[in-house]
Every structure is written in structure tokens, then in C-alpha cells.
Amino acid sequence: MFYKRTIKPHKAVTRVDTASEALAVSLSEKGKVDLPFMQNLTGQMEIEIIKELEEIIFKVPQIQPSTSDFRPLYVTADEYLSGNVREKLALAEMFAKDDPAFEINVEKLKAVIPKDIPASEINVKLR
């Protein structure tokens, strides 16, 4: 219905004090975890932001392309610890063999794996 703000104009956030505030702004403005944007907001190094947001954001295991400007993908815990967690766990375990940074991914994914339901506990009602 409205194509522009009618009450007050949008005021962009240009500075925050903590990495968690930067994450909130990044999710609000960009819709994703955008580490370079968060660096600009906080003035902190990327590694400091990642350390401060440990267990709040997760590095997604992925095959790195050969380009030199490749950046690892980070997502929120809500996004990473949902969906097909069994598939994510298998991939995280494979990457954890070579990179211990993925051990936290394995640990947290194992904690959210749903228990298997035996076929005898599945009921179907026909109407």
C-alpha cells in the first residue's frame, strides 16, 4: 500500500558498540549475517566479531571455489540448527576432520537431532 515511509524517514544506523547490536542491524538492513557491514558498524576486526558471536552465528561448511575473494558464509543459529540437520551434521563432521573450527557445529547439531521414531509408533487415521 505504502511505497515510502509516511511518519518519519528511515534513519540508517552508522555506529554500534557491540557485535550483537551489529548483528541485529545487519539482519534488519541486509537480511543476513554480513560481516564486512558489521565491521564498519563496530570498528572491530572480523575475527573479534566472530569470537564474540560464537554459538549465535555459525560458519557454514562449503567447498571453497578457487577465487581469491571467497568469503566464508555465516548464518544465524536459528537458520543453521534447523532444516535437514542430519545432512548438515554429516557435512560438518566431514569438515571437522580437517578444520577443528567446525567442532562447535558438530556439537550443536548433535544436540538438536530429533530422536528416531520406530514404525510401530506411527499412526495414520483414515477418514
Task: Briefly say what this structure is.
With 127 residues, this protein is mostly helical. The protein has helices spanning 19-29, 35-42, 46-52, 77-80, 85-96, 103-112; strands at residues 57-59, 74-76.
Shape: flat
The Cα radius of gyration reads 20 Å
Strand arrangement across the biggest beta sheet: 1-2
* Helix/strand order: HHHEEHHH
Spans where pLDDT lies below 50 across 5 or more residues: none
| Class derived from helix and strand content | mainly alpha
Q: How far from one another are the termini?
A: 43 Å
Give the rounded overall mean pLDDT: 89
Number of domains: 2
Please, could you describe this protein's structure?
Helix 5 runs antiparallel to helix 6 (103-112). The chain is built from six helices and two strands, in the order H-H-H-E-E-H-H-H. The chain is mainly α. The radius of gyration is 20 Å and the shape is flat.
Keywords:
mainly alpha; two-stranded antiparallel sheet; 5% strand
SSE layout:
Layout: H1 19-29, H2 35-42, H3 46-52, E1 57-59, E2 74-76, H4 77-80, H5 85-96, H6 103-112
Antiparallel strand pairs: 1-2
Helix pairs in contact: 1-2, 5-6
